[in-house]
Give the backbone structure.
Amino acid sequence: MKQSVKLIVGNWKMHGLSAALVEAQALNDALRDGAASARVGVCPPATLIDRMRSVLADGPVELGGQDCHASPSGAFTGSISAEMLADAGAGLVILGHSERRTAFGETDAEVASKVEAAIAAGLEPIVCVGESLAQREAGEALAVVTAQVRGSLPMGLSDHPFAVAYEPVWAIGTGLTPTTTQIAEAHAAIRAAIIERLGQGASKAPILYGGSVKPDNAGEILAAPEVGGALVGGASLKAADFLGIIRAA
Ligand code: PEP
């Protein structure tokens, strides 16, 4: 399906001190004239969200978190709830990123609980799925992403805005990307799994591609069937690089 407006989201991961706010400012200034045809978001470390809200005021760039706890509050030292992200100025939240699934052992069921918390707080979740290199080489890529969609999207999601991001683990931060045929196959499988899980009402939820998207490959990737946008790590840290991707949309 052709998506009219692409959603391009930057994931800053654990990068960014106060000095990095100038990059958000430059991005916002460059897009303020309404020239970009894409919807654009930045997900900085939680420590920057509130200050970035001031920097982005009156501009088109949206703000998001990179994770949230499944509970609205409680004795969870070091964690941040969806309500807290929304209170700080976020409208989006990345959930189930492979780095959290791998490094923090997050399961599909835990991701689904976080998605429920996000929608209860009025956030728009971006739910990440993607296979490892071993799973792709074993021919299991489509089965893996289908199972992750089934397990990570709670039924209540159908009435809320959300996105899914297809991020093959082996493409994240490596400079490797799947072929556009492989991306299209994965996105078609994810679309079928979303509809099977949530019904036709979810047939327009954007499916983003993520994994080594750069200004020079963004045009081809974003033109692939069922690619509704991009989730961008390293190339979102500098406004000039991120703008190159946004302008390819
Ligand atoms: C990511 O971590 O979500 C990501 C896509 O990273 P990169 O663009 O650096 O591969």
In short: The mean pLDDT is 96. The chain is about 40% helix and 15% strand. Residues 25 and 55 are 6 Å apart (CA to CA).
